[in-house]
Amino acid sequence: MPASVVFGRNEKCRINRNIFVLGFAFMVHFTAFHGAANLQSSVNTDDGAGTFTLAAIYFSLILSNIFLPAVVIKWLGCKWAIAVSFIAYMPFIAAQFYPYLHTLVPAGMMVGFGGGPLWCAKCTYLSVVAEPYSKLSGISSEVLVMRFFGLFFMFYQMAQIWGNLVSSAILSSSLGESTEFLLNETVASNAASLNNISVLTQDLGATCGVNFCNGGDVHENSNLQPPSALKIQVIAGVYLACMAAASILVAVGVDSLNRYNAGRQAASQGKSGIHLLSVTLRQLRHKYQLLLLPVIGYIGAEQAFMAADFTQAFVGCAYGISNIGYVMICFGVFNALAAPIAGALVKLTGRYPVMCTALLLNLCLLSALISWRPNPDQWLVFYGLAAIWGCADAVWLVQVNALSGILFPGNEEAAYSNFRLWEATGSVLSYASAPYLCVRTRLYILLGLLLLGFSGYTTIELMEYQAKRRHHQERNFELVSAKE
User: Fold this and answer.
1) How many CB atoms lie within 10 A of CB 27?
2) Alpha-carbon distance 301 to 427, whole Å?
3) Tens of pLDDT, residues 466-484
4) Which residues are within 8 A (CB) of 283 and not within 5 positions of it... i.e. 6 or more apart?
5) Is 434 helix (H, G, I), strand (E, B) or coil?
6) What contacts 130, CB < 8 A, 6 or more positions away?
7) Is 371 a residue whose pLDDT tops 90?
8) 0.85 cut: is pTM over it?
9) Which candidate, 318, 426, 331, places its Cα nearest to that of 385?
10) 3-class secondary-structure state, position 284
11) What pLDDT sits at residue 383?
12) I need a labelling partner for 81 at 20 to 30 A (CA). Which of 220, 347, 422, 445 fits?
């Protein structure tokens, strides 16, 4: 029983070990998921299977976030909810061995259904263990929660790096290119010799980048030829091993939350799915929440564009599928670095100048994507665009998340539920429309959504400024009246 647990002098080390193991397990698990997800739109192109799978993930994630966390955590507890949710991601990787629409989409739905309980259980675990650690150390539990989350996300952000490194290393290798593959290659090269001049003079900018359209002549581009089945199977095998290892790490290396739950309300006493949904929808009556919806939708849409269109239409089409992972590593590194830097700048300059900087970065980025014609010789440009995208995305994600909590004190749960809901909605719509809209059209939609979203955010800042100014004037008037 939790009440019988007596904490010794080594309990702080034990809690730190739990957080370290949990963060490391998430890093190992999402090394596999991010690595596989970034390849979907480029590798599984038949019938748009890859992009439809990503849309299925985020659609089921919407339902999962609303209906499953409270029930799953009540049944299993936080520790086992995390371990079992890891397992729910594994069919998505296993489907890469037989990658068709009818296998990938249901497997993607499983990822979404596992995602809701997974992230809720993680947040609950870190928040709960901060309380006994606070009593043992004398440090405020709020400070400890921020510290624990910071340590956790340090591990989580590294998953983008390792996952893409694994996939690119395997795709760039000569695996499966011996014996019979070499015979096929010689036959193909003889056949291609007749068209050698046209290949050499091929203008990739005419079919890649902003001019990319699914189903066009772009599929004749050798850069977009899917890698050998053996390479995909090896990648899937490595990723499956990562996910299995992550689940075992949590099951064996993390203490049950019952050890630290004495004297507090159980974590499973959260809102039911229907209650949370009604609270989320009621929050839309608030004008600030409505004004935030476009920028939240933009965050989901731009992340989906990066994962699906940028990787396929720009990097894969012009630079090669094997280089997608390396470019996405650059995105992940700058995304991880920009978040704390932006937070420090907000303390110095205020929020609005930092948000304006993100707007400027995105406007320059989208303008460059519209006007630039990708060329493999300009390889540094791919990494530069990914770095800028990572910086801007970090600012939007962190600052709009923080703003959701600042604007609605006492209603944070409904505010963050709306953030997850509309961010996922933006991602779903972006992924689902990818097979039907050319990249040029999608870029213009993104540009319009960005301007609309920033206008809504600016309106909130103006309304807050006017409200504070009125309050200041009223306060001054009260002081003057008191003196008279």
Assistant:
1) 22
2) 5
3) 888 877 665 555 555 555 5
4) 289, 408, 411, 414, 415, 417, 418
5) coil
6) 141, 144, 145, 148
7) yes
8) no
9) 331
10) helix
11) 94
12) 422
Query: Helix, strand or coil for residue 174?
Result: coil
Q: Is 126 exposed, middle or buried (0-12, 13-18, 19+ CB in 10 A)?
A: buried
The two tokens of residue 468 are: 């504070």
- What string of DSSP letters covers 4-61? G----TTHHHHHHHHHHHHHHHHHHHHHHHHHHHTTHHHH--GGGHHHHHHHHHHHHH
Distances (CA, A) of 187 to 180, 181, 191, 198, 253: 11, 10, 6, 18, 53
Residue 249 Cα to chain centre, angstroms? 23
Q: Are 33 and 96 in contact (CB under 8 A)?
A: no
CA 41/CA 316 separation, integer angstroms? 10
CA–CA distance from 181 to each of 53, 223, 225, 228, 229 (Å)? 30, 18, 15, 9, 11
Contact 394, 339 (CB under 8 A): yes
By C-alpha distance, which of 23, 26, 28 is closest to 240?
28
The answer to whether 420 and 299 are in contact (CB under 8 A) is no
Cα dihedral 429, 408, 129, 396 sign: positive
Go through the chain and tell me how many residues it has.
484
Give the chain's radius of gyration (CA, Å).
25
